Amino acid sequence: MTVAVTARRDVPQAGRADAPRGGPRRRRRLHVPTYVVLIVLALFAIGPLIAMLFNAFKNNAQIGADPLSPPTSLSLSNFTTAWREGDFATTMRNSVILCLGSALGTCVIAGLAAYSLSHLNVPGGNGVVTYLFLGSAMPVQLFVVPLFSLWTSLHLTDSLFGLIVIYWATDAPFATLLLRSFLMKVPKEFVEAARLDGASDLQIARRVMLPLAWPGFMTVALIVGLWAWNEFFWAITFIHSPGKRPISTSFLAFQDQNSTDWGLTSAAALFMLVPVVLLFLSLQRRFVAGLTSGGLK
Amino acid sequence: MTGPQLSRRRILSGAGMAGLGLAAPSLLSACGGGGSGSAGNGTGTVNLWIDITGDANQKYFNDSVVGAFEKAYPKITMKTTYYKGDDLRRVVQTALQARSGPDIVRGPSATQTLTWSKAHVLTDLTPYAKKWGWDSKLADWALKAFTTNGKLYALPMRVDTMMLYYNKTLFEAKGWKQPTNRSELEALAAESHGQGIVPFGSSNVDWTAAGEWLMTVFWNHFSGPDALYQALTGKIQFTDPVFVDAVALLKSYFDKGWVSGGTDKYFSVPSAEIGANFGNGKVATIPQGEWFMSNVGQYFGAKAKAKNDNDWDWMPIPALRDEVKYPLYEMGIGGSFAINAAGKNQDAAANFLNWYYGDRSAALQRMADVPATYNIPITFTDSEIPTKTDPRAARVLTELNKAVSSGNYGYVTWTWWPPKSDTFVYQGLEQVLTNKLTPAAYCKQLADTFTEERKQGTIPQMMPRGASQ
Amino acid sequence: MTSMPAQAPLRANPARTRARLRRGLVGWAFLAPLLILNVLVVLGPSLATVYYSFTDWSGIGPATFTGFANYTHAFTDPAVREALLHNAIWFVLFLTVPMVFGLLGAHLLNQVRRFQMLFRALFFIPYITASVVNAAVWKMLMSPDSGIGHLLGTDHAWLGDPSTSLYSVNFVVDWHWWGFLAVIFFAAMQGVDAQLYDAAKVDGANRWQQFKSVTLPGIRPTMVFIVLMTIIWSLKAFDYIYIMTHGGPAHSSDVVSTLMYDEAFNQYSAGYAAALGLSMTVVTGVVLAVYQYLRRRGWEE
Question: What top-level branch of life does the organism fall under (chain B) (predicted)?
Fold first, then answer.
């Protein structure tokens, strides 16, 4: 450990293992073309969404005349109309419930499972891991009808909770795999030390694992929340009352009715997009850290 | 506007009744015509899932259908859920299979509802029909289409036919006349195509089954209803050249770029965009069903979003072969209402259906208020059509009346073709249009599927040929 | 391995054995919520479809046992063959195109000092945008009458032409995905020991050689995981195709999952659809096994 830290100190502008950087002179030389390519890539990524942002401020005639240019005035009428007609107040509330419910539950379920798979030497644990991989390869359209029958008999259709349980089940395998590799990095000595102090497994999970793996849980919560926000297939099938519909189905229905009115559709799309973008921008550093230091590295 | 002879006729009901030699209103009808609540015995909440889109249309349904019913039956509360068409079908089927779902089942089309009936998920409506005398209120041919083995399993939701909508302002400006036969139609198409105006607008983006609307037009107006009747009753095969040539003719229209500007656009331009172009004169005509009437208005006029000074009208589809009569209207049923066998509130659901189909004046008022959407096959005379009805919508009613009485009617695919054959009609057409199947191979596959299904008996009772007296 | 001899005497200790047993039980108890949910929602209903896959079930009503008829039909069905081909095309494109863009973006990000966060955020946004929104935007941009093509002077209907429909949808999926990979790869690249680059430079390696011999091996575990998930996701590809083309026109953008959906809900062949879905799961399992086998055989070395 000490060796590594000292070695890093020798690298200019250290801190994190921050990059394969050449000397300052070389960097200056590469500067411009690199940035040009980066800007082109960035425009490619968000250009289409910028066009949508522009269209949200335009009426149909303006869009028809020039679909990609910036708006000439900042008219908010599309937003107010779309908000009202799409009933976004209701659907957004429902989606927030779905996101929180599925994120919290998945963290608990996947957290327990990941702790077990990483620190408890469960007999047959490897088989479970393989099963989780294979299970996530199942096409979901395959079991919608039997699941619907089951949910009907359990009175879980047309219920946000019923939908959340489905999200728990479908998202937990991925979350478990991610958290497992995260928790594997927690040194066994920590766990052993806590155990010698007489802590139970549940206490270890809560007091040792949770604080150490906090970024991993954050990442899982964000991803699962994002999936719940964007999901539409299960939602359309299992939620029927208009008052319980989530935002994705609201957007789809809205788009269907206003398919020629790109201004309105764009405004509605922004209602879906802006909350997640804001959330991810504010948490992106931690999110990415969690994703990479956890499962993907 | 019509002679006494015509005005006496019962719209949409004559042919079936006379053709099958059934007596018209019997004793039963006397006790059925009562007002609200007379036979009401259901209470509680009735769930209904339906595919009405658009705020205005939903509001009308809430106020003038559901609201009016709840007023007449205060003990019953309706709970309506709106879906878009594709979703509705999948969700209803999934729910029915799970023995749950809405109390009133809005089925997609006659033949597909038949599949549900065979799966025993729909309640037998025959007792209700007897109790309230539905056979005297609804057109016999439409009820027959929903009867298997003597059991009535659904009620017809809307009378369907195909027509040719046209931009009236454009036609007047260009001096175009309404074509009545193939050569006039093709001359018009060539001329408008030459001027950069799309002759026929059509799209299957929003409704994948839209292809069957076109096949319905070409088989009825080229092959003719007599040939179709023979094919559907198994006397001739769909491999007959008269059907193959109809497919080839449609394909040739696509190849000339006459339909939506090309096959690729038919597959990718949303129907609303085609509608907008229809309104501003870039599309000359749209071959569509009468249901399009409730939408077409939004593309025309200064006050609508459309912002143009144009107007629309419709004409009968021209005869595409000399042997076929003109005007000719293909007939069928768009959608159905049935009662879920797993529903807990079947009597109340039946009360709704009885009110919906039984209250003639309310039904006629709905037909007047909203063009086409509420055209249920009930019996009424021309003079009963409310005067404030849009004349274009009223003309559909009187023209269909005339068609039925003179025998000039044909058959739409989504009512008279069995379910798998019906699906093949539009899915296979995509393959024809993309050159994966020849018209002959397409008809061969259709004939095979049809023969198989006919053997299994998944075929509705046909509306017979011949004029009524 | 080295600790084995030290542990061996402890095994005899009965208290220790009991503790291990107890921990195994606790371990399964901790797995229980996950497994119970999985059985309830995924495995149980899937087993029901295993039964249906041996029947002529229409999707509603009773089902008749037909043995392996659905599976033998699947082998000869030209629509299945076409859909499998599309899955393969999809797999190759989805694996390579976002990977190339992602590596390029990550590598360039790794070269610069300013605006890293900003670029990272911009690359990332399409990934967090809902598929329904992305599909709507691109449908507008690909529209022959009002999209980008219209501005560029072509009225090609990208989604309506059978020869371009599959590639057009795949393009949209690649577009929303590559930025995510760029961000992941970028973070992984930051973890590569800077001294390795210095050593490579001393050896006279040029920038491409540095990338090949230092960067790529340095992020290999990340790449391995991404490839694994890509395999699973390409064989499951559904949502964008379903939203944008429904697999059409004329099956030209159908993959097995959309074909399965069509069979189940439009063609009244739910039994056949179940057989297709299960076969696809088996195919995925085999592909995953082959991948793992190759990896263990030293592909990774």
Answer: Bacteria
